[in-house]
Write a structure and sequence with these properties.
Distance between the termini of chain A: 42 Å
CATH topology of the largest domain in chain B: Rossmann fold
CATH class of the largest domain in chain B: Alpha Beta
Helix content of chain B: 25-40%
Order of helices and strands of chain A: HHHHHHHHHHHHHHH
CATH class of the largest domain in chain A: Mainly Alpha
Largest interface: A-B, 15 and 24 residues
Subcellular location (chain A): Cell membrane
Largest sheet of chain B: 7 strands, antiparallel
Shape of chain A: globular
Bound molecules: adenosine-5'-triphosphate, magnesium ion
CATH superfamily of the largest domain in chain A: MetI-like
Mean pLDDT of chain B: 90
Largest sheet of chain A: none
Low-confidence stretches of chain A: none
Number of domains of chain B: 2
Number of helices of chain A: 15
Organism (chain A): Bradyrhizobium yuanmingense
CATH architecture of the largest domain in chain B: 3-Layer(aba) Sandwich
Number of domains of chain A: 2
CATH architecture of the largest domain in chain A: Orthogonal Bundle
Structural class of chain A: mainly alpha
Distance between the termini of chain B: 47 Å
Oligomer: heterodimer
Mean pLDDT of chain A: 87
Number of helices of chain B: 10
Radius of gyration of chain B: 26 Å
Low-confidence stretches of chain B: 375-383
Strand order of the largest sheet of chain B: 20-19-14-11-12-13-21
Main location (chain A): membrane
Family (chain A): Belongs to the binding-protein-dependent transport system permease family.
Protein name (chain A): Multiple sugar transport system permease protein
Amino acid sequence: MTNAHPIPFRAILRHVLLIAGAALMLAPFIWMISTASKPQTEIFSSELHLIPHQFALVENLREAFAKANLLRFLLNGIIVTVSIFVLQVMVALPAAYALAKLRFLGRETLFALVLFGILIPPQATAIPVFLLLHKIGLLDSYAALVLPFTISVFGIFLMRQFFKTVPDDLVDAARMDGISEFGIVWRVMLPAAIPAVTAFGIFSVVAHWNDYFWPLIVLNSEHLRTPPLAVAHFRNSEAGTSYGPLMAAAMVIIAPLVIAFLFAQRRFIEGITLTGIK
Amino acid sequence: MAQIELSAIRKSFDGTDVLKGIDFRIADGEFISLVGPSGCGKSTLLRIIAGLEPQDSGEVHIDGRPVDGIRPSARNLAMVFQSYALYPHLSAFDNIAVPLRMRRLSAIERLPLLGALLPGRRAKERHIRADIEGIAEQLDISPLLRRKPGQLSGGQRQRVAVGRAMVREPVAFLFDEPLSNLDAKLRVHMRAELAELHRRLKATFVYVTHDQAEAMTMSSRIAVMMGGELIQAGTPAEIYNEPGDIRVAEFIGSPKINVLPGRIRKDGGVDVLGTALKLTCNAAAGDCRIGVRPERIELGTGPFSGTVVHLENLGAEAFVHLAVEGIGSRLIARLADVKHLPAMASSVAFGFAPDAVRMFDPAGKRIELRMEQAERIREPAHV
Ligand SMILES: Nc1ncnc2c1ncn2[C@@H]1O[C@H](COP(=O)(O)OP(=O)(O)OP(=O)(O)O)[C@@H](O)[C@H]1O
Ligand SMILES: [Mg+2]
């Protein structure tokens, strides 16, 4: 009996710490929901309370949808993130296959360049890319949002590491069976790498759905805006920031990711541990 | 169905020579085993025949035509890999169907959704299905066709891999240690099945293994490779009885052949452990090595003696390990009569018939021997 519960103290401590951490992480979200549910007068009242005295969530949501074309922004978000992901896969898979399984001169150098590419933050290349898009007249378009991200060095690196674990015999068997090299990428490597592609997909979609910086600098037209810009729209209102509708809009734009997370919780966690993003 | 000819095949990886000029001719319908220790270049040679690896120099001819620069699939060979290399995401049926679909369907017909709508595809798929069901019948895997490779046992995967090779009716089959991932019992069973398959298909089989028992039991000819060279090829009996090189003698046969130090006298006679053998040779005087198979050692009589240090009784036969003064390693004798085993630590006399002796020079090359005159003369008198 005595050693049935060896040291519950450590377990308790662990849980207390984890709960504290989780509370810290969740606080802004809870505050967002709380604020989104309060009428303007309560938001600016000096007393702090989480549960609003008077529920105004519906009004705030209605105002948010009235002030900005939120549905359009969500659609833009989907168009942009899906296009980016599809193009990234179309580039990264063949490149990763070549780096992992084909023998050619300069392969190691190329791979070193890929690793080097990971080290360059996107902000560093933002201005040259902006100028380039300006020169070819693509600013303020979907293309401006999508094209700069089609070659993901991180994606190439991740898929290459995964392809390394696919046995060479499988590739050779495919060659014996008459599958072309491109065919091998799509028919043999892609199915074998579904976990890695999913992981990369989560990484890519989350990153570009939430991207604020790039859309902000290349877009002008309101109808092209992505979800994070939509929130900014409320902040910029000349008649002072209306926090209720802003928080309601923020809720709406993070909803797709949260819902996706709830549906595919396990995949999300696998993906995030595999890609090592926080 | 195909004859394969290799001439002066050389290959090196990163500056080390892996194949050092292989010349070999494989006749139509032969079952050739390529054997040799690990790392001697067997797989590399097989991959060169398949076209998966380009050779540095030399030529491969299949049915008289040079195939260098021809894609693996266009050589119409099939390969079975040690790891089976089945596509993990496809069912056994689809695995076997891959080579047929790649060959019989056009690129558009192979497209995932669109292809199914094309009129020609239906009929072709029906043919493919019929072919696969025929193969599955022969290999006894019909009930397994819907399973994924992960849901099959090692032996079943192996059959699916063989099915995928058979279905395209290749001119030759290349096997790279296909049985080494199976347990001992299944291995013996599959050995018989593969030999049976070869008799039925009458196709050329090139079979790589480092298991000499597989090579001995299945093949029509064995080619022994060592250190990137093909040192002897012949029927299993030839390789076993008339090894041309001490490395071949030592590699083939289990337990290993006994090697005793010997000396060639000036007059051509041979001494072993201080005793003259009734043999002569034409080689120059000097050191040599004498090989005698365990089953040719006769215990109880003979000019030599040793101490029993270990006994292995397998029921049907027994191996007696003897420590003999003057040789480093132990000598092993096979006894067919397990009822009369010598006692441990006892001293036993042993000898061997002159025709059991295989002699090798210090470099390992075989030296031809002659029975001594006296024997020769007596023998015709007997008849
Ligand atoms: N792609 C490669 N790159 C570099 N070295 C290689 C490559 N493939 C094979 N080698 C080397 O060539 C030699 C022969 O390899 P091979 O696979 O042909 O041996 P093997 O006879 O099949 O051995 P095993 O019985 O262990 O399969 C080995 O020393 C191996 O390290
Ligand atoms: Mg090998």
